[in-house]
Design goal:
about 260 residues, mainly alpha, 10 helices, globular
Length: about 260
């Protein structure tokens, strides 16, 4: 139980700083220690990320921080919420296709490794990539829809995918992108969790879930404080190191699930 709290706490510190929510760390690490089935881990990870982003975004709005670009990101977040529901249904569909639940975890792990690798390459080369400034609400909503589907299916809340999208389509600097990413994750995770509750919650340990959610909120508190002391370059370096870690552990998890 204690390790569940520690993993969530540590993941959400980094998640709050980099704007990834923490699920992109929690999910593969819990897979690695075989904390539960793919569906159980996805649900518990999603609830933890929801708790952390609720705190972080709520605190930011109450403090009247002007880091979230509401006009641009709200349509993106609404699209992500709709995508979150669709992604959860896609996950349930894939889960029903395989009699062996381990293969579902393998599919998630392989997908996460591929997407994270692409994100790492983009991050390293982003200074040479021409970015855009999308403002049309329909376009923002469509981009958010795709984000929500992918994030919910992988059970990661949003993670590095959000940041690349915010860099490329909206030309946001690193710390601004991180704050806006948490806002998007809040919407998508809320929709995903509600969808899971309606369709059927997998069996889980309530004590472990509450500890993970508490760890997520505590991590969000610490992460917000550390963010104020870091510049864009420091956040970028932390983000790159994290990507390498996620790629390695996702590849190992995919192999473990496939062999199991």
């Amino acid at each position: 139980m204690v390790i569940a709290f520690f993993i969530s706490f540590t993941a959400c510190i980094v998640g709050a700083i980099c704007g990834m929510g923490g699920g992109v760390i929690i999910k593969p690490v819990l897979d690695f220690i075989q904390f539960g089935s793919a569906s159980q881990i996805s649900f518990m990870s999603g609830c933890t990320v929801l708790a952390m982003t609720t705190y972080s975004v709520g605190k930011s709005l109450l403090s009247k921080e002007k880091t979230v670009e509401m006009k641009t990101v709200t349509p993106l977040a609404i699209g992500a919420a709709v995508g979150g529901v669709a992604g959860k249904r896609l996950f349930n569909f894939v889960r029903r296709l395989f009699a062996n639940g381990g293969l579902v975890g393998a599919v998630q792990s392989v997908s996460l490794a591929i997407i994270t690798t692409a994100t790492l390459i983009y991050t390293i080369k982003k200074e040479k990539i021409i970015t855009h400034s999308v403002t049309a609400p329909p376009a923002c909503g469509l981009i958010g829809l795709v984000l929500g589907v992918v994030s919910s299916f992988l059970g990661i809340g949003g993670g590095p995918i959000n940041l690349v999208v915010l860099y490329y389509f909206f030309s946001m600097p690193t710390k601004t992108a991180a704050a806006n990413s948490l806002y998007i994750i809040l919407f998508s995770q809320l929709a995903s969790v509600v969808s899971t509750v309606i369709s059927g919650v997998p069996e889980y340990d309530l004590t472990a879930l509450l500890l993970m959610m508490a760890g997520g909120v505590c991590g969000g508190i610490v992460g917000r404080k550390l963010t104020k002391k870091m510049d864009n370059r420091a956040v970028d370096k932390l983000f790159i190191l994290l990507m390498v870690f996620i790629i390695l552990i996702s590849c190992y998890n995919a192999w473990t699930y496939a062999m199991g």
